[in-house]
Amino acid sequence: MNWQEQLKNFVNTIDRLEKHINLTVEERSVLENNTTTWGTTPYFASLMDRNDPNCPIRKQVIPSSLEQQNRYGMDDYLVWKENRATEEKRPDSIARQYKDRVAFTVTQACGVYCRHCFRKELVVDGDLKLDFNVNEGLQWLAEHPEVRDVLITGGDPFLLGDEQLEFLLRKLRELPHLEMIRFGTRTPIVLPQRIDAGLKKVLGGYHRVPIWINTQCNHPKEITEETAKAVFDLLSCGVNVGNQAVLLKGINDEVDTFRELHQKLLSVRIKPYYVFYCEAAPGIDHFRTPVEKGAELIRDALRGHTTGLAQPMHVVATNIGKIPLMPDYYIKDKNGQEYCLQNHKGEKTTLPNVPA
Ligand SMILES: *Cc1c(COP(=O)(O)O)cnc(C)c1O
Ligand code: SF4
Predict the structure, then answer these.
(1) How many angstroms is it from 294 CA to the middle of ligand 2?
(2) Which of 5, 228, 281, 348 is a plausible cystine mate for 77, CB 3.0–4.6 Å?
(3) Among all ligands shown, which has an atom nearest to the Cα of 78?
(4) Is the CB of 101 under 6 A from ligand 1?
(5) Whose CA is nearest to atom 8 of ligand 2?
(6) What is the pTM for the complete model shown?
(7) Class of the 67-325 domain?
(8) Rounded distance, CA 289 to CA 304, Å?
(9) Is the pLDDT of residue 338 over 70?
């Protein structure tokens, strides 16, 4: 199936889902009463475990009754997070937390409706209505020369057709102040068929303004030969590929899985960029760990335990920007004369300091 056929056969009915898995009584009853947007491509559905309801892919795709609970989430999360109620007036498509870079939302369609999505009020629940007018966003960008980096997001921008993406890139590259264009897309993971000859033509070729992509892969099971090929094709047309994982309870919050995920990403040439603390959107308490967990996992699974390239930064995304929360075990003592440092095995060493 090509990518258009994947979308035409989108797995968003019980009948289609049952071709891939045996539903539990609980899953079936939640789906029968579901009012949210859900589903994924037949490709991604085919990676689900047929009989295990705890399959990490099933849990990201199939709605759960736990979504009705909201003890630790925030109401109107996205309005708060993207500073929509405050500050300067902007089109709905532009989210801003920094002076020199913005997020530009161009669609709210996705190749998977992630149950843990921080934009779920918009993308999954449909409670929040925004107008993603591309021309309005382009106009705003043209009027803001202080913006040097634009992150095109959604939804999933690679669900747009080649002509629309070509138009978007051409318009953005006409803006002299833009130094780079980034895309956030899960397609290399959920719809690798999208990285086809047409898209390569749109993205490819040497250009003053480079393209960087970040995908979202949360579990080693999501990485296949198809993904490896899609990433290779992106790289071979000059597009860099990184990963932004979301730390998800019961999916990737265990040391061995977390390490395997980051090693396997590198094995298909994806550079781990961020691990996000699962955000406080409403109805996703069941995916959230304590805030400390991400730093603990980097300490126990990654830093010193595997290749330096496999190390993402753990960040908490907030309304005032992304804030790193990394392990802090390594500085045991410091003074004007020396630093006492500790490694991942608990061994200590001292280093003479240079007075300021
Ligand atoms: C994540 C994000 C960015 C990009 O942040 P980087 O740390 O540069 O990757 C920019 N703007 C908004 C609103 C964001 O949420
Ligand atoms: S692909 Fe991205 S925007 Fe779409 S549901 Fe998943 S996390 Fe949300």
Answers:
(1) 20
(2) 281
(3) 1
(4) yes
(5) 117
(6) 0.97
(7) alpha beta
(8) 23
(9) yes
